[in-house]
Structures are given as structure tokens and as C-alpha cells.
Amino acid sequence: MTAAVSTGPLLADGFGRRFPYLRLSLTEACNFSCSYCLPDGYQADGRPRFLEVDEIGRLVRAFATLGMHKIRLTGGEPSLRRDLDQIIERVAGTPGIRKVAITTNGTLLPRRLPGWHRAGLTALNVSMDSLRRERFHAITGHDRLPEILEGLELAQAIGLPSVKLNAVLLRGLNDDELPAWMEFLRERPLSVRFIELMRTGDNADYFQRHHLSASTVVEQLLAAGWRLRPRAADAGPAREYTHPAHRGSIGVIAPYSQDFCQGCNRLRVTARGDLRLCLFGEFGVPLRPLLQHDDDRDALLARITTQLGLKAAGHGLHQGRTGLTPNLASIGG
Ligand code: SAM
Ligand code: SF4
Questions:
Q1: Cβ contact 237:256 at 8 Å
Q2: Domain layout of the chain by residue ranges
């Protein structure tokens, strides 16, 4: 991986926010059927194929030229891409890229993680909504918690620089597990993030039943002696809490809190190459036509920078507007 290169000034929008971070979806397909995301599983729709390695290479080179240095590979389930090792290698080898992260449901970790690590992966986020096997099965539709725990052990044994867990906070389904998580983190130097359930186009009823404010977690953490870690100026949206008796930390990601969008530091590109300025934005900007030849690089850079001027100050979730997003698998959550 190349550490220092001359890249352009960091992308900024009309509100002075800077964007060091791209979330790139590699596929909309998934082998899980999480009840809040794809309750009926992934249904292929016959539209054009997902971005190929060369297209991804051109895309990432353009964003790196504009000063971006962190790429997160997501989906759908990114580990379903057979060419994932090659994709990671291409992204990690792009001048200017310092961090290559993946968000995965973790089912393929035991088999595939060593290859991803060799290819240049630096950070791993694994989604794990429950520590209880039967609940995990009920939420995701698959009884695969033991393999995921095995994959986590492997990640730590390999010495991956950053390993984090994501758990969506679900009223009545997993909201009594905070004490178990605290215990889990006593000896494990991992970070767990509780994410507030977001309303998307497809999950309105589910959202009504299971959304819970992250403030309930924060109250319990403070009562148990956990304290907010001071935030770096360029920190993302998570607020992290630590406790002297625990090696791990606990974060909350609360998209419904009022100041959430002020800290936005990321852009998204869908698996078919549309730039999305906001997870809940009303439009996508097709970049794929400009990813076919190296010669289109200047036009690609111009399209990205022009579009960034249109990024809105915040999402419309409080008004029930979920934009174009039927579920997070469709855009790369
Ligand atoms: N399949 C991978 C995974 O589950 O980690 C990556 C894609 S998934 C869409 C990315 C993250 O979004 C996961 O942590 C998932 O739990 C979260 N997610 C999906 N739908 C969500 C929703 N409606 N609200 C909050 N988080 C959601
Ligand atoms: Fe698949 Fe991730 Fe959505 Fe679950 S949250 S259905 S693992 S894309």
C-alpha cells in the first residue's frame, strides 16, 4: 500500500463538511434475510451487473485524487463477491488509500479472512445483532453465530488493526443484552456499536414496532460507570464509551439525533456505480459511464466535485422521508 502521495485537496461540500471516506457497495445480493433489511432475502432483478474490478480501480483512483483516503467495502454482502481478494488488492494498492475496511455479516470469515488480510484489508466490521444463538437466528434468518464468533477470534489472532461489531438496536428483540455485551467486552479489545434502527422504504411497520432511541443505551452505560471518550475532530458519527474495567468499548450511532448530519464525513457509491450523496438522498448520479476508459478521468473528477455542491445539509428521516432507499442492502448501508 502506498502511504504518501500528492493528492488533491480534500473534497468539501457547501456546508464546509469534508469527505475522507467512501462507502463502496460491491453487490446488492446477500445470503442473510435480516428482518429489518431483507426479510424475504435478496431477489435478483436482472438489472446490469455490479461494478467490475477495473471499474472499481478507476473509481477509487478518482476519489483518492480528490483526497479521499479511506474506503469501506459493503453491500449487500460483499463477501459474496468471488473476486473480493482482487478488489481489496486493487483498492489497497491505489496511491493515497490508507485504510481499506469491510462491513460483513461475517459468515465467510473463517474461510476468507486470511486472503483479504494478505490482499491489504486493514479494518473489519462484523454485524452481530445478538449474542444469543437462537435470537441471532431469528433476526437474521440463519443459525450462523458460532462461525461468526470463530471468525472474530481469527481476526484478533491475525492482528487486524481494527475490528468492530455492529448491532442494530431492536426494541423487544435484543434491547436487554447490554449487560451481556459489557461482559463480552471485559477481556476483548473490540468495539461494539449499537445502531439505531433506521426507517427505509420497505420497513415502515417493523420500524414502528422495533425502533428504540440509542439514548436508552447511553443512560445504562453512564449508570454502570462508562464514560464518553473525547471525540477527534474528524471522528465519524459514533460516540464511544469506555470503562476502566473493560478492554472493549461501546459506541452508539444515532441517526435520529439532531446533530447527526453535521458530522457527516462520507459519500457512497452503489454496486452499479451511482454516486449517492446521502444514505437517504432523493437521487443518484451515474458514474459508471465514466469508468470505462482511463481517458474519462477528468470528466469523472468534474462530475464528482460538481455533484458534491448539491449535497443537502441533512436527511429527511424526521419527516418520514427515506429517499430512494428501499433497504440498506440496496445502497450499501
Ligand atoms: N451485509 C453486511 C452486513 O450486514 O454487515 C453489509 C451491509 S449491511 C446493509 C450494513 C449494516 O447496515 C449492517 O450493520 C446492518 O445491520 C445495518 N443495517 C441494515 N439495515 C438497517 C436499518 N434499517 N437500520 C439500521 N441499520 C441497518
Ligand atoms: Fe444482508 Fe447485511 Fe442486510 Fe443483513 S443487514 S440482510 S446481512 S445486507
A1: no
A2: 21-330
